[in-house]
Amino acid sequence: MRRKSKLQASLLDVRVHVESNNPKRPAVAKYLQNLFDLEAERGRKVLPVDNLLVGKTRKEASRMFFEALVLKTRDYIHVEQENPFDTINIKPGVKLLKSCF
Asked: For position 22, what pLDDT does the model report?
């Protein structure tokens, strides 16, 4: 298998960085913030990812999952999965709870 050149790797990094600045991200964060507020009223601190994806198309579900991963990398949410193929649970991070979107 051929290794990527430094130029190819840096171009990929630029593309990923540009694509990660999605203007819809604050909307997804706000959506999650509202869901966590509703779950807190019901006495729950964890939100299964499956609940986020109910009623969504495959395209919407994949975007939502990707945005959740990006929010995880930026410490807005915490993601837990006990074992492979188990339910993925999301907990709000301090940044998410304190942010105004």
From this structure: 61
